[in-house]
Amino acid sequence: MKTLHLLAAAALALGSATAQAQQPLKLRVAGNFVAAGLLQQQKEQPFFDNFAKVAGLPVEIDYKPMDVVGVKDVDALRVIKSGLFDVVALRLAQASRDDPTLLGPDIVGLSTDYDTARKVWDAWRGPLDQRLQERHNAKLLSVYPFGPQILFCKGAFTSLADMKGKKVRVSDQVLAKFMEKMGAIPVTLAFGETQQALERGVTDCAITGPSSANSGGWPEVTTHVMPLGFQVHQVAFAINLNKWKAMTPDQQAKVAAAFQKFEAEAWAYSRELWDDAARCNVGKECRIGKKFALKEVAPTAADRQLVADAVRTVSFPLWAESCDKVYDKCSSAWKQAIGPMVGLK
């Protein structure tokens, strides 16, 4: 009789596990802004719309961009920690206000081109995932970049030295300090507010990627652009850790594989968009974006050196100080993972 009870209990447990595995996985997703442009529209949203097919799982996805559901990018870490959404897009520069660890792979002067950004990100993936799990009840899934962030201005300029006295739109405090060092007046503005600010003279210049500028209409209200990258601006996707742990190992493996496939495709498409928009903005032949007629300002050797030196002189010291205040292992983890790439020990 005892054996029969054990067999019955085992069968019940197996049946329960099988039923759980057959039930569709449900994920509520707060994605990147619609205003982010083609990366969100052509890669991110289609990925989630077809997630069940890509992952090879029965999945029900409720995908909504953050600007559609009223989630602010600066609140993303709090949103995912609370479980309000299961998967959340973390715009790293903006979300770093709650935890500077997120800005580690993208401080000014570090990731200024795609190849370098890829190496830096791969080095920081582990430390950031650990931090998200320990502090924010989240697990890192993937990241994609908008590409090198460059300078657009309303009015002529010949070098970064000309930024002295000009109001320049920035997106994070490290970039703000870098602009201050050049004598500029940093103005922190949301992307969606910047075109109007440029048009009305609230700001003289602004920094973003060529594709974002193109889709956001910045070339309509600016005249000059310098194709020198300061940072690349990345968007990571993370999942609420409780939701992740509730999945079966098979579900976890398939979800992780789907996000890695998306990551590879998004990086490639980001570079394609960047190159195309860079040509579009200055009136050259292009096929994706809208053609404008900005004047391209070639960076001087001094400009390139200024940005290259920024990691040592401005961005790392400032970032390390703020990050170590909230996470005492922050700068030491960075030096171990990324430091050798830039000669910082």
Automatic annotation (TrEMBL):
Keywords: Signal. InterPro entries: DctP_fam (IPR018389), TRAP_DctP_sf (IPR038404). Residues 1-21 form the signal peptide. One of its GO terms (biological process) is transmembrane transport. PANTHER family: PTHR33376, SIALIC ACID-BINDING PERIPLASMIC PROTEIN SIAP. This is TRAP transporter substrate-binding protein. It comes from Ramlibacter cellulosilyticus.
